[in-house]
């Protein structure tokens, strides 16, 4: 029996493309990342001569679910996440611990600043809806 190659998410990163195409700046102090899931609908396509008296289905267009990430929030007049929300669209990259990258264009649909409490750590959450198909890239 071979050993597992399973890993943990430690050392993953979330990046936002900068002014230079293909160059991504990592967001600071990311606590967690939920990559975009993928879904695909189906349409029944049964006809009067479908084999074995069984329903047939065809695949419809695929879609990507929203990605999100949470950071330790540090107030700043030049908040990168606030700027990403106001830019509406952008390009994003999730880098996994082994260096494989998931890249996608998207629309920032949510930016939730922290609740301010006497003793709670400030955290902000950002949600991004991919537009188009995410792509995987080999580690560099």
TrEMBL record:
InterPro entries in the cross-refs: Phage_TTP_N
Highest taxon, organism lineage: Bacteria
Lambda phage tail tube protein N-terminal domain location: 22-136
Protein name as it appears in the record: Lambda phage tail tube protein N-terminal domain-containing protein
Organism: Roseicitreum antarcticum
């Amino acid at each position: 029996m071979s050993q597992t190659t399973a890993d943990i998410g430690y050392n993953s990163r979330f990046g936002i493309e900068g002014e230079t195409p293909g160059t991504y700046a990592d967001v600071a102090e990311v606590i967690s990342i939920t990559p975009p899931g993928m879904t695909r609908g189906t349409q029944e396509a049964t006809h009067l001569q479908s084999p074995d008296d069984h329903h047939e289905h065809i695949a419809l267009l695929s879609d990507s679910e929203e990605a999100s990430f949470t950071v330790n929030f540090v107030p700043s007049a030049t908040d990168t996440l606030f700027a990403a929300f106001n830019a509406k669209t952008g390009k994003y990259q999730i880098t996994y611990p082994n260096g494989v990258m998931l890249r996608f264009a998207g629309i920032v649909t949510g930016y939730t600043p922290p609740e301010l409490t006497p003793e709670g750590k400030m955290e902000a959450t950002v949600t991004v809806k991919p537009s188009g198909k995410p792509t995987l890239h080999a580690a560099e």
